[in-house]
Amino acid sequence: MSVDDGIRTLELELASLSDELTAPAWRECVLCYVNRMVVAFGCDGRLRWTREWRRRRAPRATKLERRAGRAGAYCDCELFVSGWDVAVDVVHDPATGLDLWPDSISGCRGVPAGRIQPCALWVRRNGRPDW
């Protein structure tokens, strides 16, 4: 095996690993996917992960990025700053006066393939309609 063959093999392995790391999980909604990718890889100021989810899960939803912009999200992290929040019940602690989040929030609630609406884990801020 030559050095060029070794480099080519390594490139193929890295491409395969990259694809595995960034693939949406089965029935994973757009917001759970984007949140997972932003936590793992960050936001680059674009709708990079939103586009990637659409490409893989809902290719016919060609207006998804435009709808995100109408919701005030022009990059992936803005989906959570100005658009959606986690729909969990907080517990009010009367001793401290603080609202406490549950110890953990995990797992997408799932959506059918091709559906762009987020799963039940997410609610729109300020009661605005989805997308």
Would you give an account of this structure?
This is DUF2695 domain-containing protein. By secondary structure, this protein is mainly alpha-helical. 41% of the residues lie in helices and 9% in strands. It is built from five helices and four strands. The strands form two sheets. Strands 1-4 form a two-stranded antiparallel sheet. 21% of the residues are buried.
Per-chain topology:
Blueprint: H1 3-21, H2 30-41, H3 48-57, H4 64-70, H5 78-83, E1 84-86, E2 91-93, E3 98-100, E4 122-124
Antiparallel strand pairs: 1-4, 2-3
Question: What are the key terms here?
Answer:
131 residues, mainly alpha, two-stranded antiparallel ribbon, two-stranded antiparallel sheet
